[in-house]
Structures are given as C-alpha cells and as structure tokens.
Amino acid sequence: MDKTELADLLESLRTHGADHYTCEAKRAKGGIPATLWESVSAFSNAAGGVILLGVDEKSGFTVTGIDDPAATEAQIGAICSEMEPPIRAEIVTLALDGKNVTVCTVPQLPRDQRPCHRRALGPWAGSRIRVADGDRKLTDYEVAVLLANRTEPRCDLTPVPAARREDFDPVLVDAFLRRIRETRSEIFQRVDDDRALAMLNVLTAFEGRLVPTLAGLLVFGVYPQTFEPQLDITVVVYPSSEAGVLGRFGERFVENRSIDGPIPLMVAESIRILKRNMRRRSIVSGIYRVDEWEYPEEVLREALVNALVHRDYSEFARGTQVQVEMYPDRLMIRNPGGLYGPVEVGSLGAVTVTSSRNRALLKILEDTPFGDGHMVCENRGTGIARMLMGLTEAGMEPPIFTDDISTFTVEFPNHTLLDEEALAWLASLPVPPLTRSQMTALVMMRNGGVLTNSSYRASTGVSDSRVATRELKELVDAGVVEQTGTRGSATYQVVSAARQRPSDTAARPARLSANEASVLAVLADGPLSRADIESATALTKEQVNYALQTLRQKGRIDLIGKQRSRSARWRAVD
Hints:
The protein is of the alpha+beta class. It has four domains: 3-138, Methyltransferase, Cobalt-precorrin-4 Transmethylase, Domain 2 (2-Layer Sandwich); 151-416, Heat Shock Protein 90; 420-499, Winged helix-like DNA-binding domain superfamily/Winged helix DNA-binding domain (Arc Repressor Mutant, subunit A, Orthogonal Bundle); 504-572, Arc Repressor Mutant, subunit A, CATH 1.10.10.10. It has a six-stranded mixed β-sheet with strand order 14-13-17-18-20-19, with helices on one face. A four-stranded mixed β-sheet has the order 1-2-7-6, with helices on both faces. Helix 8 runs parallel beside helix 11 (359-365).
C-alpha cells in the first residue's frame, strides 16, 4: 500500500462512517492494543484485511500518528508470529499529514489451514472471525468444521449399529445393484449382494456383522429417521418477505412441513411441495414466451441434492436439518457445514472441482436412480454450473451463495432478469447480436453489478475463462461496457450512457407521491442504504421499500450492488 491508496482508504472509511469487513483502524497512541491479535486472526480466517495503527475512528478517522514506527512494526510482526499458523503480513509505515501510520495487511489463509488462532490459547479459545466491523469468537462448532477441513472427513462411513440390512428398501437396493452390474467392473457380477454393498460402502463390518453405513442408510433406508431423527428437510413457506411477519389473514406460515425418508424421496417430495406453492408464469426466452414454474425444477433438484450431499454429517451437526424457506420474493436453501476443500464462493460454477466432505455418499448417489431415468447426482463437479445454466435459460438472476463456516446458503431471487423491459433496453444498444450470457451480464451490470471474468462465468454458466474474456471484450469494443484494470484484476461495468433505460425520458415527468419525494430528497446528497433512508426520512421499512420500488420503475433511482447485500446503496439518477 502506498500513500495514495492509504488516503483513498481513509476517505472511504469516513464516507462509510465506521470500520468494515476488511479494515480495522486503531488509535494506538498508548502502544499496541492488547486485542490486536484478534483482528489478525479474524482477517486471516475471513477475506483478509488491513489494520491501521495511528488512526482514530472516534474522531472521524483522523490521523493521530504513532510515536515509534520501528518498535510498532516489530511488535506487530511478533504478534503475527505468535499465531498458528504464523501469519506473513505485509507491514509498512507511511507518513500522512506529517504523521506516521503503520499499515498491516493481513492475507487470507487457505481454507485447509484455518482456523488461525493464538498459539497460547489454542484453536477453541483463540480463534476469531471478521463480522461487519468487529471480531467475533468462533463457536465450538465453527472451529470443529474448520479443523475437519484439514483432513478427509469419514462421517458418512460411520456404522449405524442399531440398523440392519432389512431396514433397506429392497426396490431401491435392487435398482442400484442392477445399475452397478451393468455399468461397472465385472467383479460386481461375481460377488453376492452383501459383498457388493460392502465394497460400495453401503454396508460395513461392525463387531463381526454387516450393518448399514450412515451413507447407505440415508440413500436406501425405508425410514432413516428412525435412527437419525433430524437428518431430514424442513420446508417452510412464508406469506410475506420476512419471517415472523403475519400474512393478511393472520397466518405465520402458508405451509410448514418436515420431509422424511431416504434422500431420493426427500428430494422428490420437497420439489412437489414447492411446486404446490409456486405460480406458473410467462418467461421471455428470445422471441418466444413460454409458461414455466417460478423456479425451474432442474434448478431445485440440483440445489436440494447439493444441500443433502455436501452437508455436515458429523456428531456436531446431526441435530440440524436442511432448511428450505420460501418467501414471495426469494427461495433459500440452507445446510449445516460451510464449503469444504479448496472451493471458494467466488469460483462456484466457474470451475469444475469435485470436493466433498461426503465422498462415499456422493459415490453411491451417482448410481442411484431418481425415478425419472436420471441418477440422483452425477459427481462431476458441474452441479452448480447446470444450476446457473438453468436459471440463465429461464431468464432469471443467478443465485446468491453465502458461506458462514457453520452453514452454507443458496438464495434464488424470484424475478425474471430478462423481462420485456430489459429486452427492450438491450435492443436499444448499438451492439451486434448478443449471446444469452452477454445479455444476462449486461442486464446485471445495468442493475449496478460490477463483474470480473470469474463473476461473469459464475453468473452466466460460461465455464471457459477464454470464452468469458472474448465475450466481455466484444462488449467493451462495442462501447457499452467499460473495462478497469487489466488481466486478472480487470473489472467491467456498463458505461453511463448505455445504462439509461428507454423508458427513462417518459418516466421522469411522472408525479411523485409524498414518500417518493422524501426518499428522492435525501438521495440528492449521495448514495444511501435502505436503513439510512429510513433514518433520514422517518418512514417505515415498508414505506421506504415501496417508494424505492416505484422510484426505480420510474427511472429516478438505481441500485449500486446486490438487492439484499448489506453494502447495497441507492442513488438518484441525474
């Protein structure tokens, strides 16, 4: 970091009004803060970050300076060395406004080396994680998940001593064995059923007898919840956009179900319940209009199977179900246990990496018929890519993935990205014929998104980075997208002239309601979050949401960032 970058960072902190997810400022006038190690641990266990010493947050991030830069740098280095694993931070001191500021840039640790903790305290007491502008102690379960990521988990191979071979559904087992003997090595044709099931980790030896493994029971058990009652799926359909807000008839839920049974049955039954609570709508696809479900069935299946296959089956997590929450504006699927292995949220769908904490379960489901001629899963690392492609073909926004160490959540927004208005805007652009992925990316960028090659691939389902580079270059050459940076650091966004919608000119003279006028007035001074708008206008959350929606439709405001992101800001359109 140089002086210019430090000055820009301080200015952004002043605009934000507080520390944030990747930056922590400390006055440090009386010496190194005793809690500095917490920030080092928290940043390394999250996305990395910057610690500024000699900057006072309470006085608007003024530079107060430090007295002995050399000693300060040495003390920070010693703290980083006391961590396990040791942190190799970049530590420099810069002079700003005639005063010294020590900058410690903490790198993000690879997933298989976490949790970074203070060696003297151990991982259970000495691990922290960055949350918003603070450092939070990791829970025992979060520490257990991170420690398990350093090794190959074998929880799905755990024997279930209370279960027997007779607890399997013979129809499911016969279909599985038939598939194995038709497609695998001929060795399975020479052994009996029990021997084949033991070789395939469906059964395992326990005290001199064969008993089901947890993976075998979950796939083939007539009723696996006899032995593990919480290993099921809960489906809750809410009447409003927030849990706990009653519907117009006073109802808390439209539907609230626990789905039991083996994995193939739970997936099929969950889809049936979701479709019962979905509407069919018209989706614009090219020049045609087709009627489809709000969420494509293939997408739901991939998401549900992923949640069941990649969830944590350790003792810590067996009391937690896979949770499906359906709201009028979104669908969320959450499973215990975050991502496992080298996979990062940003690379989901962009790279075909097979990394699962439940390898035996995944292998079994690869040869388990779903009932429609397909296998339950393919085990090729392309499930997320297929999910993205299915959403793209339906003209919908890509999902939002969130990894919170203890849970992994996929959220599907319930609205069409390539609707008639968006297609009209695309048609107004001076560009050659576009691919579907270019159309999707352009509309996302018009809505405030800033894309990279990786996020372009993750959002559109394009798997080859070279194809993504070529398609982005075509948009840049056409003059509708501007590129900032080069190679791996390049970002792309719609140029200001292209962002304007065809309906903007006609919409602006429209009369504004009192609430709309209030919201527009506070946005005149610059972008604000929804919460800031509520505070500035004294309007209720519902009033602000409705005013934002109608102002956006009239072309008076647009959104910077993702709709439900904490960092999203609304701004007035000039």
